[in-house]
Amino acid sequence: MPVSLCHVISAIWYEEDLKRFAHIGDKLRSTYCAMVFRLDQNVGKILDELRKQDIERETIIVFLSDNGGQNAPGMSNGSVNAPFRGGKTTVLEGGIRVPMLLRWPAGLDAGKTVDAMVSSLDLVPTLISAAGGSIDAGDRLDGVNLLPFLTGKSDRAPHDSLMWRYTVGAARREGNWKLVSLPDRLPMLYDLSADPTEMNDVSPDQPERTRAMLKELGQWEVRSLNPVFREPAGWRVRHLGFYDSQYPLTQPQ
What we know:
A hairpin with a 2-residue loop joins strand 4 (169-174) and strand 5 (177-181). The chain has a domain at 1-54. Helices cover 34% and strands 11% of the residues. Helix 1 (5-20) crosses helix 2 (27-52). The strands form two sheets. It has a four-stranded antiparallel sheet with strand order 3-4-5-6, covered by helices on one side. It is globular and about 55 Å long. The chain has helices at residues 5-20, 27-52, 93-96, 123-130, 147-151, 207-223, 233-241, and strands at 61-64, 100-103, 161-166, 169-174, 177-181, 188-191.
């Protein structure tokens, strides 16, 4: 079977990228870093092409991940989510807190950093608004338009609360308070302002807040549509174990 030039070039890049990070020592981690590096190079090529076509200022670029890195013991891909605990498939901060980058030279000032709860569901109303469209209540979108917040026209946080469910875990966040619900234990409450690693369950000290947040989370779950499929039982058992796993809480040098 003939080998395409593209495959040859990809293989060359692969070897060069691995050599670039060989000093790390850990092959899994160095491979992960090499892949992130190559991704960064290719994002640069996209930006170069937008400039070449003279459409860079009007183009909105969104860069984000749908989940944190996969780093559970026995399933790690070399990523480290420190200082947060957990990873992909959990509703701990390591699984759901990811950066989101928006770039739109014609509409957003460069270099602005915001720290607020947002969701990928916010992208649809945001992009519709940026394109001059409109949204009404009948559209029943879960996301909100982020542009007033990003442009400084509003100082109100986009969301007062957010909720998540994945496999066996569900969570609700209100400000810096976060409730995590699992099927085999009592609900856990964390104060992310003091405990971003979610190591100190303060639900015994906050019974009323815990009950109120658990009720809101439960009402959201029963109102939500049923999934069209569920993971096999063995899969859910394995994912439940991820909440008891030990995770690195500091980034490697």
